[in-house]
Structure formats: structure tokens, C-alpha cells
Backbone:
């Protein structure tokens, strides 16, 4: 997750956005944000208060408001595609999210889903093999492995 800000924002040259710097900033809330609620306790813990200024159900409108300098938005890095908008990683603390891929054993996949599953299983996640790969290699039952 990143902070989307307009290209003239005071922290653009810094290359990151410390959480404490959010204090007093205007916030553009994405109505269907998968991040909603996650940051609240972190901001509160850091004594940071943001003022929700606008709410939008559409990312393109949110980005247009950010580009106009009306506030910042929490957005996935790959969604920040708008002229005049820059995605800055959040630091101190870092914001991130977990994404899980769950499949049903024995169910056939389309070629595209099969390719995605194979790639996810091949990749190292935070320096470790996928949970299912580790479970298979150690002989642990799949259901026990998913409880990690």
C-alpha cells in the first residue's frame, strides 16, 4: 500500500511518507478500499489525525482529486496511474497487506489459473517457500499447514 499524493506534494522528493507526516493531512477515502480500517489503529497509536475530505467509489475520481491537490489516498502501488499523482511508500511503520491464494485440491484449473497457481507455488514469499510446498516437503497434512 502506498500514499497517493499530487506531484507537488512536500514529501515527493523524500521518496517515502512517514506515518507521523500524515497528521493534519486531508484524506480522500476510497469507499471500497480493501485497506479501510487497517490504518486506523496505527494512526491512532502514532497520534495522527487525518481529516476525511472526500469520499469516492471510483479510483479514477479519487486519483483526479489527488492530482488536484485536494488530499491524499491510500492506494495499491499498481493502481496509481494518473498524470500528476505519485505513489509513496509508507514508512515508520511500513504498511502492507497479505494476499492469499486458496485452491481446491483435485479441481481442474483453466490454463490461466493453473499458470498463476504454479507461479505462486514456485515463488519464495518473505524468503520462504509457499505454505503448501513446505507442507508437502515435510509430510505435514495440508489442513495443518494452512493453520499457520
Residues:
Amino acid at each position: 500500500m502506498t500514499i497517493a499524493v499530487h506531484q507537488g506534494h512536500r514529501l515527493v522528493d523524500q521518496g517515502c511518507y512517514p506515518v507521523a507526516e500524515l497528521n493534519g493531512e486531508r484524506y480522500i477515502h476510497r469507499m471500497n478500499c480493501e485497506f479501510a480500517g487497517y490504518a486506523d489503529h496505527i494512526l491512532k497509536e502514532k497520534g495522527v489525525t487525518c481529516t476525511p475530505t472526500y469520499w469516492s467509489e471510483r479510483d479514477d475520481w479519487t486519483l483526479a482529486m489527488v492530482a488536484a491537490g485536494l488530499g491524499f489516498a491510500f492506494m495499491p502501488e499498481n493502481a496509481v496511474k494518473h498524470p500528476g499523482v505519485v505513489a509513496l511508500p509508507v514508512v515508520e511503520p511500513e504498511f502492507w497487506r497479505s494476499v492469499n491464494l486458496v485452491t481446491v485440491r483435485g479441481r481442474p484449473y483453466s490454463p490461466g489459473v493453473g499458470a498463476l497457481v504454479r507461479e505462486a507455488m514456485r515463488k519464495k514469499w518473505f524468503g520462504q517457500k509457499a505454505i503448501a510446498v513446505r507442507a508437502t516437503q515435510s509430510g505435514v497434512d495440508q489442513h495443518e499447514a494452512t493453520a499457520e
In short: The radius of gyration is 19 Å. The beta strands are 2-6, 17-18, 26-30, 51-56, 73-75, 85-91.
